[in-house]
Amino acid sequence: MPAPTKINVSEIVDNSELGAFHWGLIVLSSLCLIMDGFDVQAMGYVAPVLIREWGIPNSALGPVFSAALVGVLFGSLGCSMLADRFGRRPLLIAGCLYFSVLTLATAQAQTIHQMLAIRFMAGLGLGGMMPNSMALVGEYSPKKSRVVIMMIISTGFTAGAALGGFVAAWLIPAFGWRAVFYFGGIIPLAIAAIMFRNLPESLQFLVLRGKSKETVRRWLVRMDPQAAPRRNRRIHSARGKTGGCSAAHLFRDGRGSTTVLLWVVNFMNLLNLYFLSSWIPTVVRDAGYTTRTAVLAGTMVQIGGTIGPFVTGWFITRYGFVPR
User: Fold this and answer.
1) Which one of 82, 94, 121, 310 is at 20 to 30 Å from 129 when CA atoms are compared?
2) 45 φ, ψ to 5°?
3) CA-based angle 175:180:185, to the nearest 5?
């Protein structure tokens, strides 16, 4: 029987077994999201000290909190579109370097207006980490393990926010609030260097963009040495047969009400999450507790957010999304 002339990278990924390559990608992406969550939440942890040091009212930090999140909104949309054009690897590395530099710049802010502008610009880079990390890991995950892996990766952001609380509770009393941003800016520089050496590009992206067969072959071999295609085979991706769909598809065939409901639920969830995580440290500090206690109180929200997906995932696995 003649050897097949095509090799489907989508099928290889779907049927692969978790190995060192996959775990390396999971760890690297998780570290990226941990620092992403750390830097997004850092402002809430330093707020009580910043208010007293600068002599500003609590309300003055409201726009600063919002500026970072507005930047995250535009960054997640813009970076996702750029990643579809240039690849997830360069966007993740560049985004990590970008928000690292802006986080270091946050430590140099001298006025509330400088802080607002810097946090908005930092948010543009921070927003690109979650969607592209999730997408890249999903595109390399075996089909049977994809949901579990995506769930693990998604907790990296809240785990980083929780870690930020413990780090801030240690750094602020000893070194001041600026040390939190120095920590949050230096660590991503090291992560970006590791990503430059070890982070793969999406196989589907490489194939659909017509990149070098040797480049595709090199990453295939790293993922699974047994999957190396012969040089005379044509590499393709089954996922390239679909042209994607517009946002309007979410409202067709009876999906409109479910789409709106999911949007509302997620909107209210994030509204409450960021409101609580931003203001709890300040409220607790104003109640007369120490800065360390105030920061740790805010951390509890993120710890719950890290544990929650695993508990919810167990119930979903056992009973489904909608119990019958």
Assistant:
1) 310
2) -75, -35
3) 130
